[in-house]
Amino acid sequence: MDIFAKLGFRPIFWSDGHLIVLDQRKLPTEESYIRLETVEQAVMAISDLIVRGAPLIGITAAYALTLLPNISDNLAFENSCAMLKSTRPTAVNLSWAVDRMAAFYRQAVNRENLADDLLAEAVRIHQEDAESCRKIGDHGNQVISDPCRILTHCNAGALATGGIGTALGVIYTAFFSGRKIEAWVDETRPVLQGARLTAWELSRAKVPFKLITDNMAAELMSRKLIDLVIVGADRIAGNLDIANKIGTYGLAVLASYHDIPFYCAAPTSTFDTACPDGRSIPIEFRAEAEITAMFGKNIAPENCPVRNPAFDITPNELITGIITENGILKPGRQGLR
Ligand code: MRU
């Protein structure tokens, strides 16, 4: 199953010594690619959501570290690592990928081919994530009934990873294995990753879906129109609390009230045992304008006070299972299924 052939885009690729990324800010109205030539440009691309989604920003940072003009300059390399890591504090895949590149850099035996060797390590990070997505899709497929009406939030698809996606990877795998799937797509305020990105991906793959606003899920659940909820994650704490796009926690509470299974799909690079529980996960706060304006137009009074956390924490007791490349983890129980 080549989902990329059906999707017809690649969110990131390396070409002729440069990093090319799809500009996700412009979707779905414009499909344009940007060439990143410096670490600074990659930092800007991650901060401005040109690339987004926890695994994809990790992959972007890994490639970015190969763009330094003098790769043997240790100080410039360490500074670049710090700059990249500071861009988006919740998505742990970012620091995971940077730390892995830094460890490789420090131990690289062949300093002469350092640039090529580093690039090979970035490619491995990219390919391993694609493989994790594929396996997540296969494991997740086991919990999908036929037919199944699945609600997803934000974008945890091919646009957010190096492969077919995590939450959307499960939906694609189930759909292309012949199950009758209907997706409900939360629009995902404030920056509409659901409406702009997930709806775009699913239409390209021809997966049946309907777009809803974020305040509609309760009504759909009360009418028994949702069989399962599946989301991605930006960081999973040691006790299996998860951080994901703001609004995820509310969906988990609703799913629990309505007795609907709530799954999280994420690679093991999203796990952070240094955070014992959700309260220790740093939450990224973003610009007020994401809430007060849309597409460059004000939608709130000038100087309107705003609170804009990009992520929330869903406690483990609300999660039916966490689907990883190694199997399905049941919060509250030991080990993998
Ligand atoms: O702010 P974003 O668009 O980077 O947020 C993305 C999410 O919340 C995703 O659900 C998460 O990163 C997992 S992507 C496989």
Structure, explained:
With 337 residues, this protein is of the alpha/beta class. It folds into 2 domains: 3-133, Four Helix Bundle (Hemerythrin (Met), subunit A); 142-329, Translation initiation factor eif-2b, domain 2 (Rossmann fold), CATH 3.40.50. The chain contains 11 helices and 16 strands. It has helices at residues 3-7, 39-47, 54-64, 74-85, 92-107, 114-141, 167-176, 193-205, 217-222, 248-257, 289-292, and strands at 12-15, 18-22, 33-36, 148-152, 181-186, 209-212, 228-231, 235-237, 242-245, 262-265, 271-272, 293-294, 297-298, 311-314, 321-324, 327-329. A 7-stranded mixed beta sheet has the order 6-5-4-7-10-15-16. A hairpin with a 2-residue loop joins strand 15 and strand 16 (327-329). Helix 2 (39-47) runs antiparallel to helix 3. The longest helix is centred in the middle third of the chain and has 28 residues, at 114-141. The chain is globular. The model has no long low-confidence stretch (mean pLDDT 96). The structure holds 5-S-methyl-1-O-phosphono-5-thio-D-ribulose. 5-S-methyl-1-O-phosphono-5-thio-D-ribulose binds at residues 52-55, 91, 154, 156, 160-161, 166, 193, 231-234, 244-245, 310.
